[in-house]
Amino acid sequence: MKILYIAEVVGKAGIYAFKKGLPGLRERWRIDFIVTCADGATGGNGLGRNHAAYLHKLGADVLTTGECCFYKKDLVENIGHIPYVLRPENLNPAAPGIGARIFKGGDARIAVAVLLGQSGFTRLHGENPISRLPVLLERLRQETPYVIIDFHAEATGEKRTLFTAADGRCSAVIGSHNRVQTADEGILPGGTAVITDAGRTGSRDSVGGTETESRIREYLTGIPEWTKEAWAGPELQGVLVDINRDGRAVSIERIRYPVPEASPVPAREPAAGEPENGEPEADESESFP
Q1: How far apart are CA 250 and CA 265, in angstroms?
Q2: How many CB atoms lie within 10 A of CB 174?
Q3: Burial category of 79 from C-beta neighbours within 10 Å (exposed 0-12, middle 13-18, buried 19 and up)
Q4: How far apart are CA 172 and CA 10, in angstroms?
Q5: 3-class secondary structure for the chain?
Q6: pLDDT of residue 267
Q7: pLDDT tens across 83-94, in order?
């Protein structure tokens, strides 16, 4: 079983890199299932409903989110009816949507779940992910040996601790949120593939996929501002995980796949009737301040 995890899609450039890069990766490997982190797909913060549908149409089997899961009102209102979008599992049960689901991948069943870290997040708070982990994994493994966890967390120490707690209980735990690909991928003794952060899909020459000057101003002035999206060096990043029939990982490989650079306002494709970057205008207006 080959699982492709596409690192966090950030803004228009991220959607563009996803669209242009995914066909090449599919040619290179026989991919059974695609997990995509989309927590920053709409404007760099959050996921709008239209973008969710577009990324799913382009090939994402499941879209994971993180602390920005409720930033877009149109997704919040519909997330309970969109089976391929997951919010963190360790939120209050009253929160809309679900955090874990069994999907079909070829002839197999694949479980995907999202957990949110506790360190560094000020807007959204989850229960202790390590406490939630054993019950979650026991439930999912009753359904399938193929279990993938997206751990959306800020602190490296928290990620590595959860990796150790999960070893031997799931196929892979993939870190997200930091948007910088780490070089520590590996397979733990119990057969669980891990990486601290899979990176980002979007502008490579940027600060987390966003324009550098706005980030510099924010750090200099201390005044928060919504950052502008960057376009330089679009690249699809992520990891490819190969899993045995018993659910133990055989290999994990980092991916960095550059795509041809486009202008900040790409031309539409007349045949498809959609923007090259897949940026529906409706999503931009649905942001929390």
Answers
A1: 42
A2: 28
A3: buried
A4: 23
A5: CEEEEECEEEHHHHHHHHHHHHHHHHHHCCCCEEEEECCECCCCCCCCHHHHHHHHHHCCCEEECCCCCCCCHHHHCCHHHCCCEECCCCCCCCCCCCCEEEEEECCEEEEEEEEECCCCCCCCCCCCHHHHHHHHHHHHHCCCCEEEEEEECCCHHHHHHHHHHHCCCCCEEEEECCCCCCCCCEECCCCCEEECCCCEEEECCCECCECHHHHHHHHHHCCCCCCCECCCCEEEEEEEEEECCCCCEEEEEEEEEECCCCCCCCCEECCCCEECCCCCHHHHCCCCC
A6: 40
A7: 999 999 999 999
Joined tokens for residue 130:
């390590």
Q: Which residue has the tokens 């920053």?
A: 40
Sorted by where each starts, the structural domains of the chain and their CATH numbers stand as 2-201+233-279 (3.60.21.10)
The amino acid occupying position 147 is V
Are β-strands 193-195 and 172-176 bridged in parallel, bridged antiparallel, or unpaired?
A: parallel
CB-based contact 234:259 (threshold 8 Å): yes
- The closest alpha carbon to 233, from 3, 6, 20, belongs to 20
pLDDT digits (tens, 9 = 90+) for 126-150: 999 999 999 999 999 999 999 999 9
Tokens, residue 68: 């920005």
